[in-house]
Amino acid sequence: xxxxxxxxxxxxxYSTGEIGKVGCTKQKIEKRIQQNTKLSVSPFYSWxxxxxxxxxxxxxIRERELQIQYGYKQDLNEYASWTDNPNVKKGQRIGGSxxxxxxxxxxxxxxxxxxxxxxxxxxxxxxxxxxxxLHNNGSTLTEIYKRFNLNSGAVSNIxxxxxxxxx
Length: 167
Description:
Layout: E1 4-13, E2 19-25, H1 29-39, E3 48-53, H2 56-70, H3 79-84, E4 93-94, E5 101-103, E6 112-114, H4 125-136, H5 141-147, H6 152-159
Antiparallel strand pairs: 1-2, 1-3, 4-5, 5-6
Helix pairs in contact: 5-6
C-alpha cells in the first residue's frame, strides 16, 4: 500500500463552477475527503482512490496526468513541491548558493529546480525508472527535461546510465 494516495471526487464543485477533482494526499484518505467536503460548493457523495505511490514525485506527476486525463482543473503547483516546505514562497531560495533549490512556477507547471553544485541524490529510484520508461516508450530527451524542468545534461546522464547506474 502506497504512502501517497491519488483520489477522485467526480461530483466535487469548485467555486468557479468546475466539476470534478483529482487530488493527492499523504493523510488518511477519510480525513482528506472530509476536508474536501468543506471546500466543495455543493455536497458530494462518492469518491475513490485511483492509485497509491511510495514516491512523492511520482504521485505528483500522476496526479497532474490524471487531472488532464479526466479533463479536470489542474493544480498550479505539483504536489511534491508545495508539500516539501509549507513556509517557502515562490522564488525563495532554499539552501546555500551552491546546491540549493529555487522554488518557482514555470510556464508548463514545473515547480522546483535544482540549482548547480554537487548534491546528494535528488530523485527517488521510482522517479528514475519512470524517466527511463518514458524514454523507452518514445518520449524524447527534450520532452522529458522540459516536462520535469530538469537540466538536459542531467536527463541525458540518467538515460545513458552515467548517473543512477545502480537503478
